[in-house]
Design brief:
Helix content is about 45%, strand content about 10%. The protein is built from 23 helices and 13 strands. The radius of gyration is 26 Å and the shape is globular.
């Protein structure tokens, strides 16, 4: 398995923008250095085109400034994962924990000096950028996802700040901001999108959905924007100095096939792999909701259903995955495009109009084409993929579960033929039964799809992954799915698990949890205190 992973992650060649293929290590290393230096090592900030003092709400966050306690620091140390890849300092979480009695004094002194702003983090604020393939057979640099491996000394600091910020993040962002926030799940994000699109479809009004693609969003977010947002959200000057110290002292180098390349200073962007980065990104991305809300209040934008609808303008964001729902009106769309350009110039989060698309609801083809040309994007169709699942106006068809089945089938021809029965049983439960979980948390899986998944699981267990091998089953599948104390093998029953996972929606709904999709459903369908069946 380690050899397979190493071969998959090994970069044999890279293709330049002009189509030239490079294979020599030095050529590939220079190409990567130039690309990431251009992304992270250049500041293009000019100014923010908004008055943040009126656009953002200031909160009382003085309690975040309390001095770091030894108990708080040791809780962070205990929460470190043991075996993550070593960072530039060569240490992992297990080393920090095992050596804590020896190095505790140094760590506590570092935290104390950082708190009082008496330390320069440049010596520990370096990171390795490791490249993870986004797809099979990657060719260009954009086919890889950059993950930063930070020194554990710095990671402990950012993890502590992240824990403190997580305690207040819910009051700092809008309700339809879901990414990286405790208490808000990706399933709730999808549920709101399904429910709101259902309302749009049945309203018979002309509506469009914009799926926005932000170009290298994490890498191009300007540092000054983050600091200004923190200021006007109510963070103290001490907190802002901490963040400025962390952002301004960072350096990175790209690791190519295990060899670190030349370093460069990080003058913009937030590093994926830093515990604090997701929350800083969410705060900055949430500025878009504030800008659009203000434009709606001023009459620049119109609500797709009714201006008396209440709440925020319909935007749903999961990190940089953004949906906007608008009326099918060219003027509104043109105004939004101007707002997005202003937002991009202010924040560094540039919209890639070529990869963004528009999905019409209750529109003629001619009008949809006209609106797509106005916005400068392509036209999508229902259902489209959002956050890894098919999003549409009807129940997903069997065809829309093909990616899931393909992913499971590819695993069959892996290592199962080399394993014993015990090993294959573990593989079935830990891999093949786990792959559909994300789908099962939001969608009712069709019976035909469950049957096909069970066929793959049976072949893995009994036939060593060989689909063409017959007559090897040693027990009925129903028996194998029973608990071990009832004579079975303890294999997970996918149909029962799917129903159990979906029950959480009923729990949130009937208990009227403070979640946008729950509030939307009760207000629009059960406003007369009618109890649903």
């Amino acid at each position: 398995m380690a050899t397979i992973a190493h071969k998959r992650n090994f970069i044999f060649s890279l293709t330049k923008p002009d189509g030239t293929v490079v294979t020599e290590h030095e050529q590939k290393a220079n190409l990567l250095w130039e690309s990431y230096k251009q992304r992270l090592g250049i500041c293009e900030f000019s100014n923010i085109h908004y008055d943040l003092s009126t656009l953002l709400t200031e909160h009382n966050l003085d309690h975040l400034d309390t001095e770091f306690s030894q108990t708080e620091i040791e809780a962070i140390i205990k929460s470190l994962p043991n075996s993550h890849a070593p960072r530039p300092d060569g240490f992992n979480g297990l080393f920090i924990k095992k050596s804590w009695d020896i190095i505790k004094g140094d760590f506590l002194r570092l935290f104390r000096d950082f708190y009082h702003q008496n330390t320069d983090l440049k010596s520990v604020n370096s990171s390795f950028i490791t490249l993870i393939p986004k797809k099979n057979n990657p060719k260009i640099i954009d086919d890889y996802r950059p993950i930063s491996l930070l020194n554990y000394t710095l990671k402990c600091i950012t993890k502590l700040l992240s824990a403190r910020m997580q305690s207040v993040i819910l009051q700092l962002v809008h309700t339809n901001q879901y990414g990286f926030i405790k208490g808000r799940t990706i399933q709730d994000c999808l549920a709101w999108a399904f429910q709101f699109l259902h309302l749009c479809h049945h309203s018979k009004k002309e509506v469009i959905i914009l799926k926005l693609d932000f170009e290298k969003a994490f890498d191009k977010l300007e540092h000054e924007v983050i600091l200004q947002i923190l200021k006007y959200k109510g963070f103290s000057s001490r907190w802002i100095s901490w963040i400025q110290n962390i952002l301004g002292s960072g350096t990175s180098s790209v690791v190519l096939n295990g060899i670190p390349g030349k370093g460069f200073e990080c003058k913009r962007g937030v590093r994926q792999g830093d515990p604090l980065s997701p929350l800083l990104f969410v705060l900055a991305a949430d500025l878009l909701q504030s800008v659009v809300n203000k434009a709606w209040q001023m009459g620049i934008l119109k609500h797709p259903l009714s201006d008396t609808f209440g709440g925020d303008f319909p935007i749903v964001q999961y990190a940089d995955d953004t949906l906007l729902i608008l009326p099918g009106d060219a003027r509104t769309l043109f105004n939004l495009k101007c707002l997005l350009r202003s937002f991009s110039d202010s924040s560094g989060l540039h919209v890639n109009f070529g990869k963004s698309f528009l999905v019409p609801i209750n529109l003629t083809d001619e009008k949809a084409i006209h609106l797509a040309r106005t916005f400068g994007c392509s036209i999508g169709t229902m259902p489209f993929t959002y956050l890894g699942l098919p999003l549409g106006l009807t129940k997903p068809t069997l065809q829309e579960f093909t990616p899931l089945l393909t992913k499971i089938e590819k695993r069959l021809c892996g290592v199962s033929k080399h394993l014993s029965y015990d090993g294959r049983l573990i593989l079935v439960n830990s891999v093949f039964s786990a792959l559909p979980t994300f789908y099962m948390c939001s969608l009712k899986i069709p019976v035909q799809v469950i049957k096909q998944i069970d066929i793959y699981r049976r072949h893995c267990l009994w036939s060593k992954g060989d689909i063409n091998r017959r007559g090897t089953c040693l027990a009925a599948w129903e028996t194998a799915c029973k608990p071990k104390n009832q004579g079975g093998l303890g294999i997970i029953d996918i149909k029962s698990q799917n129903s159990a996972l979906l029950m959480k929606f009923l729990d949130k709904f009937y208990n009227e949890a403070e979640i946008p999709w729950v509030s939307l459903t009760w207000s629009k369908f059960y406003s007369n205190s009618q109890t649903p069946p």
